[in-house]
């Protein structure tokens, strides 16, 4: 599943989360820190992965999760989320638009009983 990670989305996330670190919002600060442009918040990427998965599986609930970030995701780019069931857990990978691995992790899920 592809999702555009826009500067506007990251700005809104920064406001809500109170994580207004300059590397997420300011191009000059991001470049000074060694990035081509601002980078997305790791917690935003992890939360987005969970939301995308649950939107496709509305009868499930995530009980645990872990995610390892391998490199930053630049703002104003596409993130590609992939979910695969592995022995009852959901393996998650996030890649950048050029195929580079951004993050990987695992969700444990259970069925919701109504």
TrEMBL record:
<dbReference type="InterPro" id="IPR002539">
    <property type="entry name" value="MaoC-like_dom"/>
</dbReference>
<feature type="domain" description="MaoC-like">
    <location>
        <begin position="5"/>
        <end position="86"/>
    </location>
</feature>
<protein>
    <recommendedName>
        <fullName>MaoC-like domain-containing protein</fullName>
    </recommendedName>
</protein>
<dbReference type="InterPro" id="IPR050965">
    <property type="entry name" value="UPF0336/Enoyl-CoA_hydratase"/>
</dbReference>
<dbReference type="InterPro" id="IPR029069">
    <property type="entry name" value="HotDog_dom_sf"/>
</dbReference>
<dbReference type="Pfam" id="PF01575">
    <property type="entry name" value="MaoC_dehydratas"/>
</dbReference>
